[in-house]
Amino acid sequence: MNKPKLCGGIPKNSYLAQPIQSALMPKKNIIYFIFFLLIGLMLWSVSRFYTWGPHTVSGTEGFVADNTEQCNSCHHELSGFTEGHHDIGCTACHLGDASAKDKQQAHAGIIPIPGNLSDASRTCSTSGCHTGIDYRVQHSIMNTMSGVIAINRLVFGENHHGTFIADSLTQSPADNHNRDLCASCHLGAEKKELGPIQQESRGGGCLACHLNYTKAKSSEHFAKKIDANKQVSKFHPTISLQVSNDHCFGCHSRSGRISTSYEGWHETRLEKEAMPDTGSYRLLDDERVFRYVAEDIHHAKGLACIDCHGSLEVMGDGQTHAFQQEAELSQCVDCHFAQANHRTKPYDSLQYDTKTIIRLRQLDTQNKRFVQGIRGQDLTNVYIENNHAYLVGKINQQKYSLSPPAQTCQAPVHADVTCNACHTQWAPQCIDCHTSYDPKAPGFDLLAQKDISGRWNEDLGPFLADFPSLGVRESNGKREIITFVPGMIITLDQSGYTKLPDDVTHQRLFAPIVAHTISATGRDCKTCHANPNALGYGRGEFQKNPDNPKSPWTFISEYENWAHDSLPQDAWIGFLDLPKKRAVTHDDTRPFTVIEQQRILEVGRCLQCHSDHSKAMRLALDDFVKAKELRTPACLGTQSE
Q: Is 318 left (phi over 0), alpha (psi -120 to 50) or beta?
């Protein structure tokens, strides 16, 4: 039977809500009814107090619990909730017994830190909340680490084909190496301590990105940890869409150093005691010392990581990808395109999830057509308005006017040259690594979270910040010029683990990288066409015969040759040569062929006399064959002559 609705405290179907004919109702019955009504109202008020508690709600930031929960008898003053989370109650996320008034009984089965992938199916991803998100995140590259595992197995000479997942790492030499040094940097790692996300935070599932503490709340949290007698906290950390760069920093300041590079910082080999006391150096919480080189133009403008990297990319699209580039959706041309009216949709035509995010971010949708990424994803913060493209920062809410690519970028001769190839200012590089296993040293299994015997040691060479090398990716019938860095110039000694005395290998593998150090102006032509490091030869200089300027160039390396393959220590390939064995970490990538090297150097020789924007080089951009036909006898000729 449905409960009667209240109207001013009186049930609408009560006869007291109707015109009363006192002559027809005995006075004694009226007195009894009023008495019991007052008792009922008093009991209802008491019940309301213990169920909901005295509210301190302000807008949508306060706490409005499910009116069947008893949690609020203790936690009634909580604040910090955003729209969507402020009225769902405690047990939707934390479980426990919502009907119990006793603390011990109420907290039975509670999940103090919900959102870890081990319990996301019972918390964040339950029906009616973020249904299915646990499956997506479980299969995302951020959780599987498939590419990291595959490349590591390649280096160790193990099976590296297929897809992998960090939680299933074995105890093979390669997987043990990952468990020792890398396995904490995946979303499946458990967050076990309350508190804000910091530089050394790892994992945490949903909370790794969506947990936010204000500075005041963070201070209160740490004060509570110190003072065990502190009363029940009056705040709840915010769970929201405000995914700041600090959330990414913990994992992405390692390995490729994307987060630090984006902010302009390059890692050094300095100890903290030797760090110069200037603003050009920075000490991280883990005591690594960085120096400032140059920040990415997007960081300088105030853009956050999530302004480019959306939910389908970060949290996964439901598919299991072998490598990061397969999961990447964001492309430079999603924002920087020549036509202001292509690949757009009105708000009403967007997917439900996309519209929900736009609504939660309170973005005005009037007179806007939202841009669809070149890989098919709907963008929530890039749109066309009045025939012009704009981006709205997801964190700072700033509106940015988007510019199309420069004319040079659109030249036919550069059709297969990616934006990163020209606009990357520098990339972090290491040109020597000696990795070995010490079975007697104390170690720690990052996956099992326990102390073990045995540890992998890495003796590293110099850290360099320089233009990346250029090479080719050929995939799905498409050829692209992309950026590379020394992924593994390595001496790998597995003998301590395998007990095989001669188990030592030497490899020179370059890896594709998107360094996130973009410059608005891009590289000049010589830094690609006349730079030996750009072609993969390593640092050094080209020399010509002073007695015969038309003679082919020779290359003088800055570094000595590595004894194991007779190439300069920092090189990828030999001068006008090809590698004698595998030289890349990814099967669909390669260095330039000899013919490609000759063509690049041919332009480089032209640039010895002609400036980047000269008439001759502008013609070369449009039609290099015709430009060659117009050469005079004074021209230097080709590299192969």
A: left
pLDDT at residue 222, rounded to an integer: 54
Helices (H) and strands (E) in the chain, counts: 23, 22
Among 305, 218, 319, smallest CA distance to 261 is for: 305
> How far apart are alpha carbons 502 and 336 in whole angstroms?
53
98 contacts 70 by C-beta, under 8 angstroms: yes
pLDDT score of 631? 85
Element (H, E) at 215: helix 215-226
pLDDT at 345: 92
- How far, CA to CA in Å, does 167 sit from each of 108, 186, 192? 28, 9, 17
Neighbours of 377 (CB within 10 A): 20
- 135, amino acid identity: Y
| Three-point CA angle 141, 146, 147, nearest 5° | 95
CA 594 – CA 592 distance, rounded (Å): 7
pLDDT in tens, 490-536: 999 999 999 999 999 999 999 999 999 999 998 999 999 999 999 99
Per-residue tokens: 283 = 């000490």
Those residues of the chain that have pLDDT short of 50 are 1-25, 43-65, 226-229
Best CA proximity match to 155, nearest among 177, 131, 126, 183 = 177
Rounded CA gap, 497 and 504, in Å?
Answer: 11
State the pLDDT at residue 493. Answer: 98
How many CA atoms lie less than 13 Å away from 634 in the CB half-sphere?
A: 3
Q: What is the C-alpha separation between 407 and 5, in angstroms, rounded? A: 69
At 286 the three-state DSSP class reads coil
> What percent of the chain has a predicted confidence (pLDDT) above 70?
85
C-alpha to C-alpha distance for 447 and 311, rounded to whole angstroms: 26
- Rounded to whole angstroms, the Cα distance separating 353 from 182 reads 33
Of 522, 340, 500, nearest to 425 (Cα)? 522
Answer positive or negative: Cα dihedral of 492, 184, 143, 288.
negative
Q: CA angle 298-303-305, nearest 5°?
A: 100
Specify which residues 378 forms β-bridges with: 372
605/525 Cα distance (integer angstroms): 11
* Residue 413: both structure tokens together: 């001769």
The token duo for 421 is 């190839």
Torsion of CA 32, 35, 40, 43, to 10 degrees: -140
The rounded distance, in Å, linking the Cα atoms of 161 and 150 is 7
User: What is the rounded CA–CA span in Å between residue 611 and residue 529?
Assistant: 13
Q: What is the per-residue pLDDT for 408?
A: 80
Distance between the two ends of the chain, CA-based, in angstroms? 96
pLDDT in tens, 253-293: 988 899 999 999 999 999 999 999 998 999 999 999 999 99
pLDDT at 164: 96
Q: Is-contact 275 289, C-beta < 8 A?
A: yes
CA pair distance 600, 30, nearest whole angstrom: 102
The conformational region for residue 518 under phi > 0 = left, psi -120 to 50 = alpha, else beta, is: beta
Q: Is 249 exposed, middle or buried (0-12, 13-18, 19+ CB in 10 A)?
A: buried
Max distance between CA atoms of the chain, in angstroms, equals 129
Nearest alpha-carbon partner for 370 in 393, 387, 392, 347 = 347
Closest CA to 91 of 112, 77, 73: 112
How far is C-alpha 336 from the geometric centre of its chain's CA atoms?
21
